[in-house]
Write a structure and sequence with these properties.
The complex is a heterodimer. Chain A is mostly helical. Helix content of chain A is 86%, strand content 0%. Chain A has 3 helices and no strands. Chain A is flat. The relative contact order of chain A is 0.14. The model of chain A has no long low-confidence stretch (mean pLDDT 88). Chain B is mostly helical. Chain B has one domain. Chain B has 3 helices and no strands. Classes of the chains: A mainly alpha, B mainly alpha. At the A-B interface, helix 1, helix 2 and helix 3 of A face helix 1, helix 2 and helix 3 of B. Chain B: Pfam families: PhaG_MnhG_YufB. Chain B: GO terms for molecular function: sodium:proton antiporter activity. Chain B: It is a multi-pass membrane protein. Chain B: Belongs to the CPA3 antiporters (TC 2.A.63) subunit G family.
C-alpha cells in the first residue's frame, strides 16, 4: 500500500511541475495567482500522503496550517492585484 | 477490500488533478483556466483526502482531521476563485470602459 501512496505522490509532483510552467509563462499576474493556488492544493494532498508513508500523524496538522496559509495568500494577493495597478 | 477502494479513489483523484492541470495549460483565457482548475482540483483533493480518511478508519482522530481538511477545502477553494475572478473582472471592466471613452 505504501507503493501506491508513493506513486500517487510522484504523479502529483509531476503535475506540480506542469503547473509551474504556467506560473512561469503566464501572461498576466492573475494567471500566476491561479497556478500557485493550484500548487498549494496539490502540496496539501502530497503532505497528507507523505504523513501516511512515514506513519507520522502530526504531518496532518502541518497540512491544516498549509491550507490556511495558502487560502490567506490567495486572498491577499488578489486584493493586492485589485487595488494596485498591476497587469 | 478497503485497499481496492482506496486505490480506486486515489486513481480518480490523480485523474481529476490531471484534468485540471491540462485545462490550466491548454485553455486560452484567464476565466476558462480558472473554470477548469477550480472544479478539477476541488474534486481531486476531496477524493484523495477521502481515500486517506478511509485508509485511517481505525484511527478516528486522524480521519476526523482529514475530514476537517476536506470541508475546509470545499469552503475555501471556491471562495478563492471568486475573489480572483472578481479582481480580474474589475480590471477588465475598467480597461474596456476607458478604451470606449478614448475612441
Amino acid at each position: 500500500m505504501d507503493n501506491i501512496f508513493i506513486g500517487t505522490s510522484i504523479a502529483l509532483m509531476l503535475l506540480v511541475f506542469v503547473c509551474l510552467y504556467r506560473a512561469i509563462i503566464g501572461p498576466r499576474a492573475i494567471d500566476r495567482v491561479i497556478s500557485i493556488n493550484i500548487i498549494g492544493t496539490k502540496a496539501l494532498v502530497i503532505i497528507s500522503l507523505i504523513s501516511l508513508v512515514f506513519n507520522e500523524t502530526f504531518f496532518i496538522d502541518v497540512a491544516v496550517v498549509y491550507a490556511l496559509i495558502s487560502f490567506i495568500m490567495t486572498i491577499g494577493v488578489s486584493k493586492y492585484i485589485d487595488t494596485e495597478n498591476i497587469d | 477490500m478497503l485497499n481496492i477502494i482506496v486505490t480506486i479513489l486515489l486513481f480518480f483523484s490523480v485523474f481529476f488533478f490531471a484534468v485540471g492541470t491540462i485545462g490550466l495549460i491548454r485553455l486560452p483565457d484567464t476565466y476558462t483556466r480558472m473554470h477548469a482548475t477550480t472544479k478539477g482540483d476541488t474534486l481531486g483533493a476531496g477524493l484523495g483526502l477521502l481515500a486517506l480518511a478511509l485508509y485511517n478508519i481505525d484511527k478516528p482522530f486522524v480521519a476526523a482531521k482529514l475530514m476537517i481538511i476536506i470541508v475546509f477545502i470545499w469552503i475555501t477553494n471556491p471562495t478563492a476563485a471568486h475573489v480572483i475572478a472578481k479582481a480580474q473582472y474589475k480590471k477588465d471592466f475598467i480597461e474596456k470602459t476607458n478604451r470606449g471613452q478614448g475612441e
